[in-house]
Every structure is written in C-alpha cells, then in structure tokens.
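Suppose you are handed a protein chain with no further information: no name, no annotation, nothing but its sequence. What can you learn? This example shows the usual starting point.
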Amino acid sequence: MRTKRIKASEVQRSWYLVDATDKPLGRLASQVAKILMGKHKPCYEPFLDTGDFVVVINAGKIYTQEKKLRSKLYYRHSGYPGGLKSTPLGKMLAEKPEEVIRLAVKGMLPKNRLGRRMIKKLKVYAGGDHPHQAQRPQPLTL
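A reasonable first move is to predict its three-dimensional structure. Written in structure tokens, the prediction is:
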C-alpha cells in the first residue's frame, strides 16, 4: 500500500463565507486558520498550501469581553529608538475591524513563506457586503 500524495496543481479550492456577528474572536480565528491551512480536507499536506478561500463579513460585530477591549494591546514599532506604539482592542475595532481578525488569524498560521501565501486567501470586510459573489462562497457556520 502506498500513501497518495497530492501535488500543488491538483488542489481543488473552494470559497467559504463566514459571518462574524457575535462570534468570539479567538474561536473564529482558529476555525478560519484551519480552513486556510486545509486541515479540514483529507488531502492535507503540511508542506503544501491545500487550503480554501475564506470571506469574513461583519468583522466589526465580533464578540469580545469588556475587560479585553481595554486591556488587549496591539503593538507596532517605527524602527526608531522609542518608536513603540500600542493601540487597545477597542480602538482597533472602531477604526480597523478587518485588521483585528486578520492579525488574529495570521498569528495562528505558520511563520514562513507558506503562511504568507495562506493569509492572502483571507478576505475580511467590516460590513455585510463583499465583492466575491461571483465565486459563490458556501455559508459556513462555526
């Protein structure tokens, strides 16, 4: 018996639609990361990008605890001495809710060129509309 190995050219990609309304951020991010990596498929290979495309809508309506809105901080650095900036989760949700979900999912993907290729298949939108109707994404309940 031999194990069937799939090639990168044989991967069938699907599109999924996820509504983030009242979903906890971490649970949503872990399920989306699993689909982007392809771990839900029987042909999963850790060294190949076998995952599917995911469209997340209503990113601004995710559920987080009140304490986390103030205490969770997002850091960035300008590269200069003393250039560390921090932004609380509440402010990020108000200004860039798409970035909150993208960063949560990115942290759960591999930290290499394969992970950078996987994150490109994630499309996040703050509202309920998205420009991917032609791909006919399947609704996914998490």
